[in-house]
Amino acid sequence: MDPVTAGILVAIGLIVLMAIGTPIAFALGAISLIALVADRGLVELTYFGETFFDRIAEFGFVAIPMFIMMGAAVASSPTGRDLYRSLDLWLGKLPGGLAISNIGACTIFSALSGSSPATCAAIGKMGIPEMRKRGYPDGVAAGCIAAGGTLGILIPPSVTMIIYGISTETSIGRLFIAGVIPGFMLAGLFMIWTLIACKLAGGYGNPMAIATEKIKQTVRENVDANLKALVRVLPFLAVVLGILFALYGGVATPSEAAGVGAFLCLALAIIIYRMWQVKPIKLIMRDSLRESVMIMLIIAAAEVFAYALSSLFITQTVAGAIADLEVNRWVLMGIINVFLLVAGFFLPPVAVIVMTAPILLPIILSANFDPYWFAVVLTINLEIGLITPPVGLNLFIINSIAPDISLRNVLTGSLPYALCMVLGILLLCLFPGLALWLPDLLMG
């Protein structure tokens, strides 16, 4: 069978399996096994098992469950609540200040958790009811949280950046720092759009709700409470800064830094928030184990899938066809961006990275694009997929937090922020230094 026909059949089979609800890891593994056996016979069963387990046996993958545990410890504690209250104290006076506070909280919480779903859930549980109580439209309340939650896969420490680094054999420390300025740039674009939208609508705020709060608590007490909340958050921020310093200073490997960070965040959550009971600790371990196993299964299955594509010469054919396109390199980058955007509509970021990064990297390098710059562009494309249908994980998380807000309202409120991300990609194309200046400055 020629590679083109084989590729079409594999793509159709994968789409069918996912359409009927098969988990991504099982869908990738099943279609890979069927393709290999059909092409080469039962002898491929041996290579299937070896490829599946050899890939996830790499020591570098230890960083993934450790960073996930670090995020779970933060997400399971009241850190998000304290962070939200502190930012509301400083930003709440602006037009749309509460929505801007939520985006700021999402930005900082992203650095603490490294997970978009965790960020979306932790801040959304507090932010959405509060915004609705103060008169914000449902679309604004849901959209700013859904968009802010996507920053979890860009701002370091990011699990998706670790996976990209391992898949492409690039420096994880440099990848982390490449995401810093673009991450805060996106947060700034989100805040600017929120400020403009709220200003055009005359600002938001429910005077009755605010008056009721003032009756319950004096301004002085409110300030004191928020400052105390900020003090409780600062140790977690110090842990993140310490991890980044250890990585960029060459003090520790990503796996070592992740292990220390997980221990410290778990210890801080227990000590600061008095989580001495077995139940909350058990919940942290359970959530960490579930997400880690899911990600590792996807990585292992995607490696088998990549092996199957390579064995059937599908990868080589696709890469050769793209490389043979006699087009400007920016047109090539536009084609790749559209491909990543569409892939992000249907697949989670981890699956897209492990399936496409090894294939796209040689093409990117041949077109003289920087692999670290491309990692940021790829990640922003995948962020858009988190707030766009049909999969749109953050949309469903928001809908589960506030089930009385229709999915349509959540989507409508999120779309302007998706356009902000597209603008962010354009800015990165015009000014690559946004992603490359800081890594070059700190790491040479």
From TrEMBL:
Domain of life: Bacteria
Residue ranges annotated for the TRAP C4-dicarboxylate transport system permease DctM subunit domain, each copy included: 12-433
Keyword annotations: Cell inner membrane, Cell membrane, Membrane, Transmembrane, Transmembrane helix, Transport
Pfam families named in the record: DctM
Main location: membrane
Entry-linked InterPro entries: DctM, TRAP_DctM
Function: Part of the tripartite ATP-independent periplasmic (TRAP) transport system.
Record field: transmembrane: 6-38, 59-78, 98-123, 175-198, 229-251, 257-276, 297-323, 335-361, 373-402, 414-438
Membership in a protein family: Belongs to the TRAP transporter large permease family.
NCBIfam families per the UniProt record, alphabetical: dctM (TIGR00786)
One GO MF term: transmembrane transporter activity
Compartment(s): Cell inner membrane
Transcription regulation keyword on record: no
Subunit-level organization: The complex comprises the extracytoplasmic solute receptor protein and the two transmembrane proteins.
Membrane topology of this protein: Multi-pass membrane protein
Protein's recorded name: TRAP transporter large permease protein
A GO cellular-component term linked to this record: plasma membrane
